[in-house]
Automatic annotation (TrEMBL):
The lineage of its organism: unclassified sequences, metagenomes, ecological metagenomes. The keyword Metal-binding applies. Keywords: Flavoprotein, FMN, Iron, Iron-sulfur, Metal-binding, Oxidoreductase. GO terms for biological process: fatty acid beta-oxidation, unsaturated, even number, reductase/isomerase pathway. InterPro entries: Aldolase_TIM, NADH:flavin_oxidoreductase, OxRdtase_FMN_N. Its cofactor is FMN; [4Fe-4S] cluster. SUPFAM superfamilies: FMN-linked oxidoreductases, Nucleotide-binding domain. GO terms for molecular function: 2,4-dienoyl-CoA reductase (NADPH) activity; FMN binding; iron-sulfur cluster binding; metal ion binding. This is 2,4-dienoyl-CoA reductase [NADPH].
């Protein structure tokens, strides 16, 4: 909305002041909308929502395309360097692309060319609205992982059409939210889907971004060195550690609080209509409320137990300037995390303990084991 522009400028100015660049993601949930007024290409209910959507009329389709372009123009006015048009993960644009959810017989459904028209028109009209010097990322579903999804030839044709329509970059989307194939949980190997991005290289001339389960600098470096993609995209790792990029730049990967892909406080909270956060970084999305400031009076503390709570308590007290002794009966830190990391598919939990070992050293906590 136009009256939101000034509020967004606070964010874009802060990012630019820090030397960064920022793009805003534009997303229409379509039949994934969790309300009775949701719309979709066809009147087909999603298996993960309780509401049956209303099929968009031809006028409604045109109005939605215009809304995407208008949103991008407002984003530019608000100071964003670009937008990402969400065309994957089973949201509205993706729903138009697949016969699974698009059974229209008008100019927006039927053949693959007509089904991709909605996506291509959004990119084309957005480019016409924002001009040539504004970044447009199109997030392309390269693997739908659902029945009656797009085949590879359709995906390649769409990528080429989106490039011709004016996209600057193509980002990789993997799987619809209703897909039964795991794509982002801990049991999925790191960088497990970069091969599909590599498969698209050579089909388009614009840079390709890859994503999913890239959580440490060495993983990202390997993906880029192998030529799987031109860039990498991350989301949850930046909730786990907002200083991820700075630590990677300074060669301090061991100090990164690694995303363990548990989804328990980020996606699970969102799906329950709660504020997102992070299991390994509870301050995520609470930064203005959970303040960690230097203490006016230095004290001595003893913390008993080096499980996750004790580790967080001890290192936070030390960060505030206190003298801290952390006592643990066992010969190693971690408590029940040492059990959790032994479960097949939960090996990433070991990263949290590696992080706290580094934190103990960095904050000069006096650790006494055994």
């Amino acid at each position: 909305m136009p009256w939101h522009v000034a509020r967004h400028r606070k964010l874009t100015r802060a990012v630019h002041a820090g030397g960064g660049r920022i793009c805003m993601q534009i997303l229409h949930a379509g039949r994934y909308g969790y309300h009775p007024l949701s719309v979709a290409p066809s009147r087909i209910k999603s298996p993960i929502t309780p509401f049956t959507p209303r099929a968009l009329t031809g006028f409604g389709v045109e109005r939605t395309i215009s809304a995407f372009a208008r949103c991008a123009a407002l984003a530019r006015e608000a100071g964003y360097d670009g937008v990402e048009i969400m065309g994957s993960e089973g949201y509205l644009i993706n729903q138009f692309l697949a016969t699974r959810s698009n059974q229209r017989q008008d100019r927006w459904g039927g053949s693959a060319e007509r089904r991709m028209r909605f996506a291509v028109e959004i990119v084309r009209r957005t480019r016409a609205r924002v001009g040539k010097d504004f970044i447009i990322i199109y997030r392309l579903s390269m693997l739908d992982l659902v029945e009656d999804g797009q085949n590879w030839d359709e995906i390649v044709r769409l990528a080429k059409a989106v490039e011709m329509a004016g996209a600057t970059l193509i980002n990789t989307g993997i799987g619809w939210h209703e897909a039964r194939v795991p794509t982002i949980v801990t049991s999925v190997p790191r960088a497990a889907f970069t091969w599909v991005t590599r498969r698209l290289k050579g089909e388009v001339a614009i840079p390709l971004i890859t994503t999913n389960r890239i959580n440490m600098p060495e993983v990202a470096e390997h993906v880029l060195a192998a030529g799987d993609a031109d860039m990498v995209s991350m989301a949850r790792p930046l909730l786990a550690d907002p200083q991820w990029v700075a630590k990677a730049r300074n060669g301090r990967g061991s100090a990164i609080n690694t995303c363990i892909a548990c989804n328990q406080a980020c996606l699970d909270h969102v799906f329950e209509n709660k504020r997102a956060s992070c299991l390994v970084n509870p301050r995520a999305c609470h930064e203005t409320e959970l303040l960690i400031n230097a203490s006016a009076q230095r004290k001595r503390y003893a913390v008993v137990g080096a499980g996750p709570a004790g580790l967080a308590c001890a290192t936070t007290l030390a960060e505030r300037g206190h003298t801290v002794t952390l006592v643990e009966r066992d010969a190693r830190i971690g408590g029940q995390f040492n059990l959790a990391k032994r479960i097949p598919g939960k090996e990433e939990f070991a990263e949290t303990l590696r992080y706290f070992e580094q934190r103990i050293a960095d904050t000069d906590v006096d650790l006494r084991l055994g």
